[in-house]
Design brief:
The protein has helices spanning 3-8, 12-19, 88-109, 115-128, 130-134, 180-190, 197-214; strands at residues 36-37, 40-46, 49-54, 58-60, 64-67, 73-77, 80-83, 142-147, 152-158, 164-167, 173-177, 223-229, 232-238. With 252 residues, it is α+β, with helices and mostly antiparallel strands. It has a single domain (43-238), classed as Aminohydrolase, N-terminal nucleophile (Ntn) domain (Glutamine Phosphoribosylpyrophosphate, subunit 1, domain 1, 4-Layer Sandwich), CATH 3.60.20.10. It is globular.
């Protein structure tokens, strides 16, 4: 290993900070006048894994729609993913940088981080965005993955300072964003122990649909979901935030 990499350690973010700080996402000097923000993201555990899902709408001020087909759920490695809420631009940059950070760590160390180690890395990146968050450009992701050491899916949520909250079996679901309260209430009411994969996907759609009925910033052409199990990640797209409150949402 080159001496410089030994001194810098296995963090790609630290390597950029030392060698090319201009490539790191920079906090703006003032809030962006047209920052696309607001959304609904959800995560829930089921028997054998976890579902991470989001709507696809980006808005300005929560009411002016600028795009109905944005991607808000990103694969971070073979067994974890991140869903983003908050200011869209900074959130996407952080998600992509987080992907690279995990790849860099594995190449340098020869072994991947544990799921909790990945969650802690993301926490540090959110903390570094605090200045921008205080200016009105927060990044509020949900991180989820399959923990092979514990043989179960796990969910991690964060505040704007990078504080990490682990959703354990006492409340194995989470929701965030402008429609998060309504989505969380849906999950709280309908989640039950022993959900299978299909039931968990249907409940994630239901939570997003209920949020979209009252929150103008939640919507889009469809929902994006990732199902994470011990076998890896499966992408699911389907259900319209513009009118998917019928068949799935009407089930009891």
């Amino acid at each position: 290993m080159p001496l410089e990499l030994e001194q810098l350690g296995s963090s790609f973010v630290e390597l950029l900070r030392r060698r090319h700080p201009e490539l790191l996402p920079a906090a703006p000097s003032a809030p962006a006048a047209a920052a696309a923000s607001a959304t609904t993201i959800v995560a829930l555990r089921f028997r054998g894994g976890v579902v991470l899902a989001a709507d696809r709408r980006a808005t300005i001020g929560g009411h002016l729609v600028v795009n109905d087909e944005v991607v808000k759920v990103f694969k971070t490695d073979e067994f974890s993913a991140i869903a983003i809420a908050g200011s869209f631009g900074p959130s996407v940059k952080m998600a992509r940088l987080f992907q690279t950070e995990l790849e860099h760590y594995e190449k340098i160390e020869g072994v991947g981080l544990s799921l909790e180690g990945k969650a802690n890395r993301l926490s540090q990146m959110i903390e570094q965005n605090l200045q921008a968050a205080m200016m009105g450009l927060p990044v509020m992701p949900l991180f989820a993955g399959y923990d092979h050491e514990r043989d179960e899916g796990r969910i991690f949520e964060y505040d704007i300072t990078g504080g990490t909250f682990i959703r354990e079996k006492t409340e194995p679901f989470s929701a965030s964003g402008s429609g998060g309260d309504r989505a969380h209430a849906t999950l709280e009411h309908f989640w039950r122990e022993g959900l299978n994969r299909e039931e968990a996907v249907a409940l994630a759609r239901r939570a997003l649909s209920f949020a979209a009925k009252k929150d103008a910033a939640t919507g889009g052409a469809s929902y994006l979901m990732k199902v994470i199990t011990k076998d890896g990640i499966e992408d699911i797209e389907g259900g319209s935030a513009l009118g998917d409150t019928g068949a799935e949402a009407g089930k009891s």
